[in-house]
Amino acid sequence: MNRNQSELLFSEAQEHILGGVNSPSRAFKGVGGGTPVFMKRASGAYFWDEDDNQYIDYLGAYGPIIAGHAHPAISQAIQTAAENGLLYGTPTKLENQFAKKLKDAIPSLEKVRFVNSGTEAVMTTIRVARAYTGRDKIVKFAGCYHGHSDLVLVAAGSGPATLGTPDSAGVTKNIAKEVITVPFNDIEAYRATLEKWGDEIAAVLVEPIVGNFGMVEPAPGFLQQVNELTHKHGALVIYDEVITAFRFMYGGAQDYLGVYPDMTALGKIIGGGLPIGAYGGRVDIMEKVAPLGPAYQAGTMAGNPASMSSGIACLDVLAEDGVYEHLNHLGEMLEDGLMKLARKHHVQATVNRVKGALTLYFGSETITNYDQANATNGEQFSIFFKSMLNQGINLAPSKFEAWFLTIKHTEQDIIKTLEAADYAFAEVAA
Ligand code: PLP
């Protein structure tokens, strides 16, 4: 496959844009280097690059594109919004409509606020939790990504129940000291953390189904126990549903699992492809936010008509009959096919899947936490990734990311993908 234009554009990009990319995961560092593909057009489940090669896309823009690229209803909604004026700086009816839609779908959102990204949404829930509890510390789970605010770019300390250390240059030690990181699915480590720091902890941040070291489900009872322990110690439970909301059903992962947080952060899918974030939760907590309360949060672009229109249109598409059944059916086909091919080629592999989102790990262990995901074979993933790309299958360039199906993928796309995977596994095995 000729990708000369991508090569040229990447050289040019590196002259002007730091690292040639505007988000580090787009560089191919996670797959041993290489040239990112410059896409120029996308429609449904497909991409076309600058050399006119066609790809079946499983990146889904890291999650938002569940309705497929350039969905006509979403494109039309954005066009109408643009014609009516892109940004007012006043309240609009669209914000009411969208807030009501989110509340109807995710009932724990007694009140909501719109922001511009998942990062902002999570960052604000932390501020609000601190304002509500009068405490400073937060707990998060190892390997979970919650955006790039200082507060969550903190790595685990030297053992369970130790304070964190900065995970990025520029994050101060003082900030890191406010964050405790414990292994996901390890309720004893969480209990020990609360026993040690319980009266200083404002909130725990939870991806109820993890999307950031592959798709990892909570062990039975884990989230219920997190809720019980957290509340017992007077802290709040925040769900980061930036990846998970509307991914497995029309509603949140909390509705899918039947366990409910005090506050929720949203993003990705709810914008239908435009920048968005939202947060919400119990009304007595949300009342801490300005203009009603002392916790400040604002945004020039927050609740802008284009993002609202795009989000409403996207949720309308997702509310149609059969959407999640289709995603699940194709997910099942893909999982079964990948596992059969791995066995055929004697490659150790395992798939974690929830409906239309899955991760293929190279290793034999069941993946329930970050250490296990980290121990999977990155070199084999890189070979697989590059082979798939060269055969026109676009995956996320990291062994930790998920494959996201869209409602536009077809059985035929899965069959083609599995044909490519047959060859890719052979290359891994060679
Ligand atoms: N939370 C989770 C679970 C995410 O996966 C991400 C992004 O990947 C974020 C928060 C940050 O969202 P954004 O990239 O919109 O700032």
UniProtKB/TrEMBL annotation:
GO terms for cellular component: cytoplasm. Its cofactor is pyridoxal 5'-phosphate. It is found in: Cytoplasm. Its EC number is 5.4.3.8. Pathway: Porphyrin-containing compound metabolism; protoporphyrin-IX biosynthesis; 5-aminolevulinate from L-glutamyl-tRNA(Glu): step 2/2. It holds the Pfam family Aminotran_3. The modification N6-(pyridoxal phosphate)lysine is found at K268. It is an enzyme of class 5 (isomerase). The keyword Isomerase applies. Keywords: Cytoplasm, Isomerase, Porphyrin biosynthesis, Pyridoxal phosphate. It catalyses: (S)-4-amino-5-oxopentanoate = 5-aminolevulinate. GO terms for biological process: protoporphyrinogen IX biosynthetic process. InterPro entries: 4pyrrol_synth_GluAld_NH2Trfase (IPR004639), Aminotrans_3 (IPR005814), Aminotrans_3_PPA_site (IPR049704), PyrdxlP-dep_Trfase (IPR015424), PyrdxlP-dep_Trfase_major (IPR015421), PyrdxlP-dep_Trfase_small (IPR015422). One of its GO terms (molecular function) is pyridoxal phosphate binding. PROSITE patterns: AA_TRANSFER_CLASS_3. Homodimer. Belongs to the class-III pyridoxal-phosphate-dependent aminotransferase family. HemL subfamily. This is Glutamate-1-semialdehyde 2,1-aminomutase. It comes from Alkalicoccobacillus porphyridii.
